[in-house]
Design brief:
The protein folds into 2 domains: 144 residues, Immunoglobulin-like (Sandwich), CATH 2.60.40.770; 302 residues, Alpha-Beta Barrel (TIM Barrel). It is built from 13 helices and 20 strands. The longest helix has 42 residues. The protein has an 8-stranded parallel beta barrel with strand order 2-3-4-7-8-9-10-11, surrounded by 5 helices. Strands 13, 15, 16, 18, 19 and 20 form a 6-stranded mixed sheet that branches. The chain is an alpha/beta fold.
Length: 503
């Protein structure tokens, strides 16, 4: 290369070198700036993980679960004052008040109803509601074991066909008689107008035919048992559209039969299983129990102690050495069958449970039914308006039973929701439902995780409390299920999880 060419190349390098250095500097500065932006974003949002403390001992009152107090009107119909004076010490441990009574007690004359005209009946009901108990009913039409004729005399006068008991002189209808069915259907319409209300009623036994209203020893003029089952099951379902319905799961050859009950009551109308023979070793066999278990968790189980008048009659003594052992057998049946409910029964029996086996009472309190817990919630401590708020939440159920949200009368009305609460007013400023989270899926031993993404476009900037609840979508999305956690709770029922900033 000539000297002139070398000089030109040197001058070009001399000119370009500062530009290259500047460019490299800009590139380096740009990288630092990008890192600073990322770091700032990370500083703005940090995940908060909440693991609520569980309530492992307290009574959790919720729909369709828990201990049951009884007004078992076979021996006589109880007097309200006397009944509640005896049951008051135990009512806080129960969730449901169950009344089993003859049709004639509720409608002694056609169109004359106890809930309108019988002050003692009204006082008995009010005593339960005053103590925070939900109601449940069985209305029976057969007089066997009853303190009075179970079907009102006006039904006989209207021309219904029936039979008279030679010993008692009481008349009972043949339950496939069209006049009886017409009159009972009209009664159920009136009954449902009053009690088709899930705010006060947990369940109704949708049968009531046969001995003790259990669907056995049916009195018929023909042989169409299946037709009778379809009539009674469908009539209850047509009237009680919002309240759970139960069917006695009775294997007796004199009744409807389990295959028919499975097809009609459970399959077509979404009934729950009711069983009144818990603890009876020679009749309630392991085969029977396994058939009930086979329906879980799609069909919840409502259990009942087979023994009553525990102190005065002591029928348990034929099967067990001590009352304590008998009660243990009843509880073991309930827990192994995933029972949502179990009865303390009539006042004499309630007192026996608490005096002989208070630890068993407590065991069903903490294990029976369902106890729903948000095991872990992860959310950002702050979120920009217009950006997606992401909440990861995991749930569990520490009870043996299930929330029967899938039954047609409830139709998945209970849903998981989250809310932002204004700490100054305690009011909800924003809420979102996670439709993917289904409480009727949650059974003991499982962990159920979901991710909710929602946008906060309409939420003013500020500091809020993040809260969760299981709401009732038919009641303005208000919290409806008590969770088994110890977190702070707002007056409207939302459980506070922690703080979140909207900016």
């Amino acid at each position: 290369m000539s000297g002139a060419g070398s000089l030109r190349s040197f001058r070009l390098i001399f000119v370009l070198l500062p530009i290259l250095v500047a460019m490299l500097g800009c590139s380096a500065d740009s990288g630092v700036e990008s890192q600073e932006i990322v770091a700032t974003q990370e500083t703005l949002e940090a995940d908060v993980t909440v693991q609520p403390e569980e309530d492992q001992t307290g009574v959790i009152r919720n729909p369709a679960m828990g201990w049951v107090l009884y007004a078992d009107a076979f021996a006589d119909f109880p007097q309200a004052d006397e009944y509640w004076n005896s049951q008051a010490p135990y009512a806080d441990s129960a969730s449901i008040f169950y009344i089993r009574l003859p049709w004639s007690q509720l409608e002694p004359l056609e169109g004359v109803y106890a809930w309108e005209n019988d002050q003692n009946f009204k006082d008995l009901i009010q005593g339960a509601l005053d103590r925070g108990l939900k109601l449940a009913f069985r209305v029976y039409v057969d007089s066997e074991g009853s303190y009075q004729q179970a079907t009102p005399e006006y039904v006989r006068d209207a021309g219904a066909v029936g039979v008279v008991d030679a010993e008692t002189g009481r008349w009972d209808p043949l339950v496939d008689d069209p006049v009886f069915q017409e009159k009972f259907s009209l009664f159920l319409e009136a009954f449902a107008r009053k009690y088709n209300d899930p705010a006060v009623v947990d369940f109704v036994d949708g049968n009531g035919l046969g001995r003790w209203g259990e669907g056995n020893r049916l009195k018929l003029q023909g042989d169409d048992i299946y037709g009778v089952l379809r009539w009674i099951t469908g009539t209850y379902a047509a009237n009680f559209t919002r309240v759970l319905l139960g069917v006695q799961y009775n294997k007796s050859s004199t009744g409807f039969g389990l295959d028919n009950i499975d097809t009609v009551a459970l399959g077509e109308y979404g009934y729950v299983i009711r069983k009144d023979t818990l603890g009876l070793p020679y009749w309630f066999t392991e085969t029977d129990k396994e058939r009930i278990r086979s329906h879980f968790p799609g069909v919840p189980f409502f259990g009942e102690n087979v023994y009553q008048y525990l102190q005065s009659r002591q029928r348990w003594a034929d099967d067990y050495d001590t009352l304590r052992v008998a009660l243990e057998a009843v509880l073991n049946d309930a827990l192994s069958l995933h029972a949502n409910t179990l009865d303390l029964r009539i006042p004499e029996d309630t007192e026996a449970w608490f005096s002989e086996a208070p630890d068993l009472v407590q065991e069903f309190i903490v294990r029976g039914g369902y106890r729903l817990i948000p095991a872990e919630i992860i959310y950002p401590d702050r979120i920009g308006r217009g950006r997606a708020l992401t909440i990861t939440h995991t749930w569990k159920n520490t009870g043996v039973g299930v929330l029967p949200n899938n039954k047609p009368q409830w139709n998945y009305k209970y849903k998981v929701a989250f809310a932002l609460i204004d700490p100054a007013t305690d009011q909800v400023v924003f809420s979102a439902v996670d439709g993917a989270a289904e409480p009727s899926d949650w059974i003991e031993g499982g962990q159920y995780s979901y991710t909710l993404k929602t946008f906060l476009d309409s939420v003013p900037a500020g500091s809020y409390k993040l809260a969760c609840a299981i709401i009732d979508s038919t009641m303005d999305n208000l919290p409806a299920i008590n969770l088994a956690i110890l977190n702070e709770k707002t007056n409207s029922g939302w459980y506070v999880l922690g703080d979140i900033l909207v900016h």
